[in-house]
TrEMBL record:
Keywords: Signal. One of its GO terms (molecular function) is beta-lactamase activity. One of its GO terms (biological process) is beta-lactam antibiotic catabolic process. Residues 79-337 form the Beta-lactamase class A catalytic domain. Residues 1-21 form the signal peptide. It is an enzyme of class 3 (hydrolase). Belongs to the class-A beta-lactamase family. Its EC number is 3.5.2.6. It catalyses: a beta-lactam + H2O = a substituted beta-amino acid. The keyword Signal applies. This is beta-lactamase.
Length: 370
């Protein structure tokens, strides 16, 4: 055999081996055990491609129709989004508009706390003091414990109070501890949570929504309500209009549902932090007439509610978002948000309940998880 013929056979064998290496399953190529050396003699980093995404099943037509009818039939600005955690499909109606979150935004403060825990920068048993100057407004049960030089507790206790009782002071004290609104916004951007805004904290947000500028005296003895009641209806209406038109705490329901789905899958936090956060959300005592009220026996829920201010018959923000787990183990992230309406509270509650019922009805017709 000539040297030229030997070379051709060697080349053909090599190319055949390369071709075989490129056939077969759709899995990503395995990265080399040792990075190759560059011309300067140092090791170069070869990024490992992410795994191929699981193909999502198509959204169920029955649920698409049900959610669309609920959203379009409600008199007011509303959005609904459902994301199947395990099957990957998404159903939404009005779910891409920015709607006021109100206390739903406490979820992002909690997520920031747990993210810092994963980084070793905060501990849930870390001592923390809530002082009189930390008091906010509206719902703040912890205020009864803040006396003298303050109430001494832990980060974990404040997290529980903020998520389970929607305590505004507990939430804002945590917000201060994690580095303020900028730190939460940074977490939202870093985790790529999408169309989710984070406002300036409860005091400034609620004052601005009412047409006031925050004063420390508003935090005690009903000071905020007294000052708000002294405003003219025109001033309050103008402030409320500005808020619902461009809410500084606005978020798209579809972005919230996706974030909750990613949380459930373990994409946002460590396994331990994920479990702690979802378990805490599962102990919430707020919103008994919202998502929870429509779930059949055997279902589990981990959720966060949000309720905005009223002006006459108008309400600016009435929400419930969370993770619904069916008896067969399938999980559904859901966000139902009402941004501006004159419909009475029972009708707002009914919209949220009906959205949860639609998911439960769909899940009752699906096969169990494999």
């Amino acid at each position: 055999m000539t040297s030229a013929s030997a070379f051709k056979r060697l080349l053909a064998t090599t190319l055949f081996g390369v071709a075989l290496a490129g056939c077969g399953s759709a899995s990503r190529p395995t990265p080399p055990a040792v990075s190759p050396v560059n011309q300067a003699g140092g090791f170069v980093s070869i990024p490992v491609p992410p795994p191929l995404p699981r193909t999502a099943r198509p959204a169920p037509a029955s649920l698409v129709n049900a959610i669309s009818e609920l959203q379009s039939g409600f008199q007011g600005k509303a959005g609904i989004a459902v994301r199947a955690v395990d099957d990957g499909w998404t159903v939404e109606a009005g779910g891409r508009q920015l709607l006021p979150q109100q206390s739903v935004s406490k979820l992002w403060v909690a997520l920031t706390v747990m993210d810092l825990r994963d980084q070793g920068k905060i501990r849930l048993d870390e001592p923390i003091v809530v002082r009189p100057q930390d008091l906010t407004l509206f719902h703040q049960p912890i205020a009864m414990l803040v006396k003298g030089d303050g109430y001494r507790t832990t980060v974990g206790d404040l997290l529980t109070r903020a998520l389970t009782h929607s305590d505004n002071t507990a939430n804002d004290r945590l917000l201060t501890r994690v580095g303020g609104s900028a730190a939460v916004r940074s977490m939202i951007a870093r985790k790529q949570l999408g169309a989710i805004r984070f406002g300036p904290g409860e005091r400034l947000l609620q004052s601005g929504t009412a047409g006031l500028v925050w004063q420390p005296s508003y935090a005690v003895n009903g000071g905020f309500l007294t000052a708000r009641n002294q405003l003219s209806p025109a001033v309050r209406a103008a402030a409320l209009d500005a808020y619902v038109r461009n809410p500084p705490d606005g978020a798209a329901p579809i972005a919230i549902a996706d974030a909750i789905a990613r949380l459930a899958k373990g994409d946002l936090l460590s396994e331990t932090s994920t479990k702690i956060l979802l378990d805490t959300m599962g102990r919430s005592v707020t919103g008994r007439a919202r998502l929870r009220a429509a779930l059949p026996g055997g279902w589990e829920i981990a959720h966060k509610t949000g309720t905005g201010q009223d002006l006459g018959r108008r309400n600016a923000g009435f929400n419930d978002v969370g993770l619904l787990t069916a008896p067969d183990g399938r999980r559904y992230a859901i966000a139902v948000m009402i941004g501006d309406t004159i419909r009475p509270m029972p009708e707002r509650q009914k919209l949220i309940q009906n959205a949860a019922a639609a998911v439960a009805n769909y899940a009752g017709t699906t096969r169990p998880l494999n």
